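Purpose: get a first structural picture of the assembly so the mutagenesis plan has something to point at.
Setup: three entries, given in the order below. No constraints added.
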Amino acid sequence: MNQADFSYLVPFIIIAGAPILMMLIITLTKNFRILYGLSLGAMILAFISLFFTGNSIPHHVSSLLVLDQFSVVFMMVIILASLLVTLLSYNYLQYQESEKGEYLIVLFVAVLGSIILVSATHFISFFLGIETLSIALFILIAYRKIHSHAIEAGVKYFVLASVSSAFLLFGMGLIYANTGEMQFEKIAIALHSSGFSTPVLLAGFGMMLVGLGFKLALVPFHTWTPDVYQGAPAPVTAFIATISKGAVMAFLLRFLYELDAIGNKKVILIITIISVLSMFTGNFLALRQQNIKRILAYSSIANLGYLLVTLLTGSDLGIQAAAFYLISYIITTLAAFGVIGLLSGKDYEAENLTDYKGLFWKRPWVVVVFTLALLSLAGIPITSGFMAKFYIVFAGVNANLWLLVVSLILNSVIGLYYYLRIITTLFTPANALKFPVISIPGQLVLFITATGILWLGIFPQWFFELFSGFSGF
Amino acid sequence: MILAYLILILIAGGLIAWLAGKWNKELPRFIALFALFTDLFLTVMIYLQYSNSDTNDWMLVYSASWIPHFGISLYLALDGLSILMLLLTFILGIISVLISWKEIDEHTGFFHFNILWILSGITGVFLSLDLFLFYFFWELMLIPMYFLISIWGHTNRIYASYKFFIYTQASGLIMFLAILVLYFIHGKNTGVYTFSYPELIGTTMSPATAILLMLGFLVAFLVKLPVVPLHNWLPDAHTEAPTAGSLILAGLLLKTGAYGLLRFVIPIFPEASVTFAPFGMLLGVIGILYGAKLAFAQTDLKRLVAYTSVSHMGFVILGVYAFNELAYQGVVMQMIAHAISTGALFILVGQLQERIHTRDINRMGGLWKQVPVMGAIGLIFSMASLGLPGLGNFVAEFLTLMGTFKANVLMTCLASLGLVGATLYSLRILQKVFYGKERTVHVIKDLSLRERMIAGVLIVAIVYLGLLPQQIFNTAKPALAKSLNSINNQSSGGKNEKSGTYNFVPEPVSTNQ
Amino acid sequence: MNMIFYIAAFVSIISTGLAITGKNAIHALLFLILSLLSISIIFYILGAPFIAALEVIIYAGAIMVLFIFVIMMLNVGLEKEMEKKWLRPRMWILPTILAAILLINFLIMLKTVHFEKTKEVVVLPKQVGISLFTTYLIGVEIAAILLLAGIIGAYHLGSQKKKVIHRFMEKN
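Result (structure tokens, whole complex):
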């Protein structure tokens, strides 16, 4: 480590330093506004600092982290998304009686875990990143501890996160045992010379996939998702659905591409099966749900299934498609959970479909944002979801992945049904419940996400060009 | 540029109408009318300017880059076929706003937003020459249509709107997949990756691939048209939609399918189309007969009219696969005449329902005494529907049958039976609704001035089409010739000779006109 | 040496299983300590004496003792009865046997395993320290932040000021 390394670590230092500073401030004052302002400021600062790393990337900081175009873009996305989550949390923290500042501290730790994950090039940093993320998320999920749903969700997440960590560790251990390396580049070299055929290596690889599958909630490791989504407060659910999954997916992309694992037929087969299963299971289970959070949980399972298609293309186009899809998915999901979170009150979460009956006629703007988000999830033009799905299908057709492309299209049609169900409910002529007034930060989030959905959906060229730099690692 | 404005005016008009709806209930109607009249005016101006230049080229081309990363551009162009369709779109658009004047009195802002956005999607479909853009607009019109049906529709609206949406979206996605495959085949052949239609026309591919891709396109167009095994969404959607919705569905949405066949399927897949032709004609005949039979069996008046659409659209696909100019002129005429006659019938049903609150044919009867004007209008359009000489539909069906006769005698004979069917169901409408015994006592008013004016315009139009169709033929001729050229060149063995075959296609250069 | 590994591994699997399935918290913790001890033996024979020692000192020593204290303190008042029930042979015989096996295993290991003769590379505390503060410095920092979150979480979730609304009760 030298001085140059430190300049590249500035975003990490800001994100890691903010919670420590906040802890010190909490000892002096419990004024929530100061802490809230500080955390927003720190995130914006970290975001800006990312622009100054752009000069001489890729840059390796020791053997643990790398700052290349891919990680910088994803760090930007993550920090921006966490800024939105922080804004969303305002509404929720209003109802929290004590320890409001601590929530923000833990949120920062979770963000730190995510940005480390996207820039990890080493098993150690990967594992620490994912653990930091999971532990922090467990605390956030259970934060509203007077509700037993929250505790249940937290414990469920914690247990499954531990199990998946165990799988990850075992898998990494097996790969290390076989190659003697923990740095991805070196593993790749070792694999290149020895081949990818030994059963132990494959087993290690499979175990890592299982572990990551848990984090990404892919079928058959998806069972925790609906309960956790439902039990956690909406901003935290938004965090899990967007930042946490996005970071893990970004890591998976880097890992698979760097190891060149897509060349292996068995790996392809496994990921294909997981992908197709995730699409169908997620969409079919969502069809009959009455709870919007659960619907979105199942829809996220299906969406991750779509994302896996990009992995299998094994081309640069795939990485670009994945990046675009992830960004679109993150914005869209933030909008959807944002609406849910902002309509929730002190003692209830606005999560039942029936709560939303006829909301359009009372709160047209909120519903417009929500509808845009749902249409984007369904992949209808003028929303980002359409361009994102187009990109995936594009990459899939280019790589001749017919099975996956056809099941993606079939699933888009199935998915349409439950998104339409929600939309129809929103527009039914009926009297909606009384929902709280939406705070300024909340309005800001809705505005930003809606703009993002439309911008990505109508003028995606800028992003396409941005990502066209992602060509291998 | 003016072509882009045609679409933008509608999109902006929709948004403004929505916002205006917050302050005033009536304002959105005027905004919508204003936007549509502006578009109509612009289109008429273009028409007058270019109708006499007997060029085989596009009248107007507009091209701007949109997503150059994938070779997607905002590539719009206008020829005779498109301009006819556009005129139809704006006229029916204006009428659909007018007929909703009294029917829709809640959330007028959002209603007109939806109407204008559907129309902008349809306009886009008729103008785009970039396949991606085409698909974009193709999908864009679905969502507002879905809202139109599911919010302002009748009793069973939710079911109908789901069915409509899922049918069209699913088939659209299949077409999209076919578009992408075509894009890659063309890209790999030539190294130029583009969605531009003129470039894609000459794509060479193996016959099997061509058939598969053509089927991908066909599914989307045949669902929209609709053709019999895929027609299931139509009766529900038409029946449950509000009058304006039914009018746009029958008058315009169905036409996008026919337009797609003529514009895209035939020129891009000439060989495969020839292979498919017998099946296409068969589907057409089945549609004609089956639609007529079902129309005859309905008791719900609106559903009856919906099934007549299925029957009439059968002539379209029959004509498309006859591959000669007579039939094609018939097809274009059928598209326009059907839009007007069926649209008028839907309006009539809407007006009836507004007055007697039922669509059940068994609860009507003897209405002529009370509403002679309405009866007379009903009489005219029923006659149009059964193909009475002197009205537009007669010209259309007669030309189609003449054209098809050259291609396939058997199919033509069978299709002619459809005319008998049409007579049966059309007379049944009149018999049950306006003549016969009065079943129940309704005290109803005859048509108001606004309604009479709407009907008047439609009557003038259908009579004009019936008596002086030459103008339409002249306008559509160059565009149809292009489609036919591709077939003729193919059958004369020159399928790969690009020279001379496609030179009517302009390069997508950026022109601001 | 293989035998030693297998015995230790066997004991660790059995005791971990019992720790998970045990209904009584204290007994479960006893098994957990056993499991940690056996793992430290495995570390030792793999050539990591420092980690083995840490395993005993930190996990089996400090953390587990802390756990046991906490749990015992939570059960104030019932000691007498509990003691009688818990001190039945059925209760303590199994841990004792496992511990005895482990002890014998350990003694044999001390007798037989000499690192000079094996191919394992012995990693000593100094090396661990050096790599922690050079190559893996960032890792250590991340771990510190992770612990920060853990502490805050424990503090927030552990403090029991408010009544808990149970999900079955809130329905009434």
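Chain C touches chain A at residues 134-139, 141-143, 145-146, 148-150, 152-153, 155-157, 161-167 (CB under 8 Å).
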